[in-house]
Design the sequence.
C-alpha cells in the first residue's frame, strides 16, 4: 500500500506512522516549575542527537508543562524509562494541573540531582542532568508554524546504576529500556547483537 500524508487516505482505523518509526526512545523528563513543583512526563519524540557535547532533543505538541518549566528554569532531567517502571511511566502522562506533581500521582520517590535543581526519579537506573540550549517551533514545508516545539539540551551529568555495568559495558538488554511504538504500544530491549563496523 501507499498513501499521501496530506490526504491521510491510508484507509486504516489509526495513523500508522508512529508504528513505522518505532521503537522511539522515551525521555521521561523531570522539571521544576517556577513555584518549585516537580513535574514528570514521558516524551517519545526524544533522542540523543549529538555527542561532543552530548545533546538531547525532544518535541512537545504544544507548550506543555515540561517545556514551560524548562523555558522558565533552564534545567531538566531525562530519566530512563524501563519495563519495570512501565505503569508509572504511563501514569505520568496524565494531564494534571501545574500545581500537582506526577511524582506523587505515580508514587515515585524523587532523588536529588548533582548539578541542577530538578529531581530525578530514584527508581530509574539512569538519568541525564541537562541544561537548556534552545527551543524552536517547528515549521512545515511552507514555513508555517506547526505548534510543535523542539527543545534541545546539553547533558551535564550522567547517573548510572552500576548493577547494570558488566565488564565495563552498560548492558541495555538488562536495563529493559522502554520504547514507544504505534498506538498505545510499548516495547523494550531484551536482546542485543554486537556487530563490529566494517573497515
Ligand atoms: C509513552 C508516551 C510518550 C509520549 N510522548 C510525547 C511526545 O513526544 N510529545 C508530546 O507532546 N507528548 C507526548 N506524550 C504525552 C505527554 O506525556 C502528556 O501530554 C503529558 O501530560 C505532558 O505532561 P506535561 O504537561 O507535564 O509536560 C507521550 C505520552 C506517552 C504515554
Sequence:
Amino acid at each position: 500500500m501507499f498513501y499521501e500524508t496530506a490526504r491521510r487516505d491510508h484507509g486504516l482505523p489509526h495513523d500508522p506512522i508512529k508504528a513505522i518509526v518505532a521503537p522511539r526512545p522515551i525521555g521521561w523528563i523531570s522539571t521544576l516549575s517556577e513555584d518549585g513543583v516537580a513535574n514528570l512526563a514521558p516524551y517519545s519524540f526524544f533522542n540523543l542527537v549529538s555527542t561532543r557535547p552530548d545533546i538531547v532533543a525532544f518535541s512537545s505538541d504544544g507548550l506543555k508543562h515540561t517545556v514551560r518549566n524548562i523555558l522558565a528554569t533552564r534545567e531538566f532531567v531525562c530519566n530512563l524509562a524501563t519495563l519495570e517502571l512501565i505503569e508509572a511511566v504511563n501514569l505520568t502522562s496524565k494531564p494534571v494541573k501545574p500545581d500537582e506533581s506526577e511524582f506523587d500521582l505515580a508514587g515515585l520517590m524523587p532523588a536529588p540531582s548533582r548539578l541542577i535543581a530538578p529531581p530525578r526519579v530514584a527508581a530509574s537506573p539512569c538519568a541525564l542532568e541537562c541544561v537548556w540550549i534552545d527551543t524552536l517551533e517547528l515549521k512545515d514545508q511552507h514555513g508555517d508554524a506547526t505548534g510543535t516545539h523542539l527543545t534541545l539540551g546539553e547533558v551535564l551529568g550522567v547517573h548510572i546504576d552500576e548493577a547494570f555495568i558488566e565488564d565495563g559495558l552498560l548492558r541495555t538488554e538488562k536495563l529493559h529500556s522502554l520504547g514507544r511504538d504505534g498506538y498505545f504500544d510499548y516495547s523494550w530491549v531484551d536482546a542485543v547483537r554486537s556487530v563490529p563496523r566494517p573497515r
